[in-house]
Design brief:
73% helix; elongated; 4 domains; 634 residues; mainly alpha; single chain; Serine Threonine Protein Phosphatase 5, Tetratricopeptide repeat; 22 helices
């Protein structure tokens, strides 16, 4: 049984083994089929991948070719654009250089014409001298003939005298006595006639006047040439300043600088010529002064005054020719000047309705005036918002030579026209009305006030508050003192004119006084003012500090200079500079005052000190040192 069971198990195991082998063989066949299918798919994928790589490579080659074509085209376009821009820039530079060259040629032609005119004048003078020499030679010949005739007549007379000598011997003694008397009288008369203190020689007078007129014509011609040189130099400087360096080619810069160097050389030659003319004018004036104060006619005195103005104008012209054309000109003025010649400058503020001509007349810049006259000749009579012409600023600065130059060039309008209407009142005396008219037309500076008592003092004393405000609008000085040390405010307080006092306090930027204070403390304030004035006068100072200003100084000690509010922008530093108080200028600068701060009239403390030179030289020195300290401060 066990053997049979083992056989059965063996057969079962063999059957299972056969079944398993059959299944394994079937599985192997299936796996072989799957492997063959996988191989075919992998081969197909590899072929597709190879084909895709080839296509990608061909596309990359095409893209690379396209990029190379695009880069070549872009390079060609950039090169053509650069060539066109360089061509345009070179054309513009050439046009500008040609324009500048034409201007210089025109200037040279003007100089050439001037030289030709001078040569023609010299030739005419030489011809006149030759004619005079020939006339003198002819006269000398005539004198020689006359001398021979006289000698012949003398010989005949001597012969006749010898014949009659014996007849005249009897009366010779008496004749000698009479002749001696006659010679003594003639000698006395001859001494009187030769004395230069008795009368002037009209021939010499006419010679001096002619010489002065000739020198004046030469000075005017030289100044016209200097004006042309100023115009060319300023225009070249503006052209350089209006174009940034990164927008201008090297050729343009070189051309402009070459033209500018030629213009500067021309200005140097003109400066040397004017220096020689100045020496000639001064020597002529010295010779005139050596003749004595009473020598000469009215015509000669006028000629001498004209020569003095010429000397002053030449002295002002020499620094302008030797310095940079745009030195000291503000940015706003440069911007306005550039706009006249179609140029543009960046930055700079507008001039608030004012013309550059007013600034030039105020600061004595004849070069800027000559430049502006080439474009707007009518600007000489143009008025600023305050109703003032350039002549007003030249006269107020005391520049008589520049004022005469402006008048000679067509500045014939009244220097000033009030913007505000004159208050209507019937209490103004006729003499004061005439003075008011002069102030309205010529300016406050045109009147020399007797004993320092101005119209503002008179209006404050009479209680005319409207006239006080009107006179301050006409540039009256609210801080001016008369010979008695009184300001207009003190006159109003003395006369108990409360309305005028309130107006003056408002204009001076002082604290308004109440009615109780005006009634109770006016006398005390006046006493304080007089005490301060007398104490400062005893110390040798030019004038006292008003008591109101003393209180303002105490207020500055309490709150500081920065927190002060000044009426019309007029600070205590302006007042101190105007009255040459160098000690107060240093004190206010220590407080933190700005020497370049401008009031509503556009004047700084430095301007007031310069206007009052040489009286305010000490204050000007303190202000200049203070400005240097401010600039050097971190």
């Amino acid at each position: 049984d066990q053997q049979d069971l083992l056989e059965l198990r063996q057969r079962e195991a063999e059957r299972r083994l056969a079944a398993a082998e059959e299944m394994a063989s079937q599985r192997a066949e299936e796996l072989q089929e799957l492997a063959s299918e996988h191989k075919t798919r992998v081969s197909s994928l590899e072929s597709e991948l190879v084909r895709a790589c080839k296509e990608e490579k061909s596309q990359e080659e095409a893209a690379q070719d396209l990029k190379s074509d695009i880069s070549k085209r872009e390079a060609e376009l950039l090169e053509s654009l650069a060539n066109s821009e360089a061509h345009q820039a070179s054309e513009a530079a050439l046009r500008k250089a040609l324009h500048m060259q034409e201007k210089l040629l025109a200037d040279e032609r003007v100089d050439h014409d001037t030289v030709q005119r001078q040569l023609a004048e010299s030739v005419s003078e030489v011809q006149e001298l030759l004619r005079s020499v020939s006339d003198m030679q002819a006269r000398q010949k005539e004198h020689e003939v006359l001398r021979l005739n006289l000698e012949l007549r003398q010989a005949r007379a001597d012969a006749a005298a010898d014949a009659k000598l014996k007849e005249a011997a009897s009366i010779e003694a008496s004749l000698r006595e009479k002749l001696q008397d006659v010679w003594s009288k003639l000698a006395s008369k001859t001494d009187l006639s030769l004395n230069p203190d008795t009368f002037g020689d009209p021939l010499l007078d006419s010679v001096f006047a002619q010489k002065a007129a000739k020198i004046h014509r030469k000075v005017l011609a030289a100044l016209r040439r200097a004006g042309d040189a100023h115009h060319a130099a300023i225009e070249l400087e503006l052209s350089l300043a209006s174009q940034p360096s990164d927008h201008v080619g090297d050729g343009d810069q070189a051309t402009l600088r070459s033209l500018l160097s030629r213009s500067n050389a021309r200005r140097s030659r003109l400066a040397q010529e004017l220096q020689e003319m100045l020496a000639q004018v001064q020597s002529t004036l010295l010779l005139k002064c050596a003749e004595g104060a009473d020598a000469g006619s009215d015509e000669e005195e006028l000629a001498a005054e004209r020569l003095e103005l010429d000397a002053q104008l030449i002295s002002q012209e020499l620094p302008l020719l030797k310095s940079d054309p745009l030195h000291g000109v503000p940015k706003s003025v440069l911007k306005a000047m550039a706009s006249l010649c179609s140029l543009y400058l960046e930055g700079g503020e507008d001039m608030d309705g004012r013309h550059p001509m007013h600034w030039a007349a105020k600061h004595g810049r004849r070069d800027v005036i000559e430049f502006l006259l080439r474009y707007i000749y009518e600007s000489l009579n143009q008025r600023d918002p305050d109703g003032r012409t350039p002549l007003f600023y030249a006269e107020r600065a005391g520049n008589d030579a520049l004022a005469a130059f402006l008048r000679e060039n067509g500045c014939d309008a009244n220097p000033q026209e009030p913007v505000q209407r004159r208050p209507v009142t019937g209490t103004v005396p006729e003499a004061f009305a005439d003075v008011i008219k002069v102030v309205e037309e010529r300016g406050w500076h045109a009147v020399n006030w007797m004993e320092g008592f101005t119209l503002l003092h008179w209006a404050a004393e009479k209680g005319l508050a409207d006239f006080c405000r009107y006179f301050v609008d006409l540039n009256a000085d609210v801080n001016a003192v008369d010979s008695r040390g009184r300001t207009a405010l003190q006159c109003a307080i003395n006369s108990k004119n409360s309305e005028a006092e309130l107006v003056l306090r408002e204009l001076m930027g002082l604290v308004q006084a109440t009615s109780d204070r005006m009634l109770g403390d006016a006398e005390e304030e006046l006493a304080q003012m007089q005490e301060v004035a007398s104490s400062t006068a005893s110390n040798g100072q030019s004038g006292g500090i008003p008591a109101a200003y003393v209180r303002v100084m105490q207020q500055i000690d309490l709150i500081g200079w920065e927190k002060m509010h000044w009426a019309r922008g007029f600070t205590l530093l302006h007042w101190a500079a105007k009255h040459d108080r160098a000690d107060l200028c240093e004190l206010f600068l220590w407080y933190g005052a700005d020497p370049e701060h401008q009031d509503d009239q556009g004047h700084s403390a430095l301007d007031y000190a310069r206007i009052r030179e040489p009286q305010a030289s000490a204050a000007l020195g303190s202000l200049l040192r203070g400005r240097e300290m401010i600039l050097l401060a971190p």
